Model the fold of this input.
Amino acid sequence: MKKISVLLLLAIFTISCVSKKKYIALEQENGEIKSELQKTKVAKEDLEAKFEKIEARVEAYNSKIMSLKEENDSKLEVVDNVGVISKDTKVKMRATLENVDTEKLSQAKTLKDSMNLAIAYNLEKTINESNINEDEDFAVNINETVVMISIADNMLFNSGSYKLSSKADTILQKLADVINSEPSLDVMVEGHTDSRTISTSNIADNWDLSVLRSTSVVRKLQNKYNVAPEKLIASGRSSYQPLADNDTKENRAKNRRTRIIILPNIDKFFALMGENNDSLAETILD
Done:
């Protein structure tokens, strides 16, 4: 009986010793795993930091590429030594040329010709939509990129005066509608007289009268019809650019006029056009 008890105690002691060894081994293994986990965590954080730097560099390169592309698109090209035009503007111009009469389009041989056709098309469209009707006292002429509107003095002023008459309102309203419809336009108002000399208490000579008349028109366009003043230019030509000899009453009447010159800013003109054109006219501006 005593022998059996000793053997049992020995067995329990042996089992206890083995379990403790395994426990210590497991503790050691657990420590190693935690150490590896910590190393992995540090490596992960290091990789994330490096990835962030790479992302930042890629974004910087992409921004630089886009900046260079935009710079290239906005580079200006000289057009026959009379103006400049950007790549973006040329794209919009192609779309406009789709609407131009094919016979006129076939006559365009240079970039300047195409530019003139496109701008003339848009200005003619604006003028036609304004319901301005031509007659002997009112004439519209489109010369390349410039619209010139000539108005007889009896449509705007009383004889020898620079004060606008009441009947000037109708025509100035239509003129303002044209100017306000297109933000890229500059407008020069020129006063012209016949050759007869004038001198009053308020008017020194024909130079004075022509400038005063143009200034009256400019002020009315600004104050009553809300035309932006920075778009307006007032000038006087006196009697030195006559349409006819000043030898008859009828010819002198032709020379007494106010000329409205509409000058588009070419790049701004097309930049403000709609972006909804799906196809381009490839005939011109290859």
In short: The helical segments are 2-74, 87-97, 102-106, 111-129, 168-181, 206-223, 249-255, 266-271.
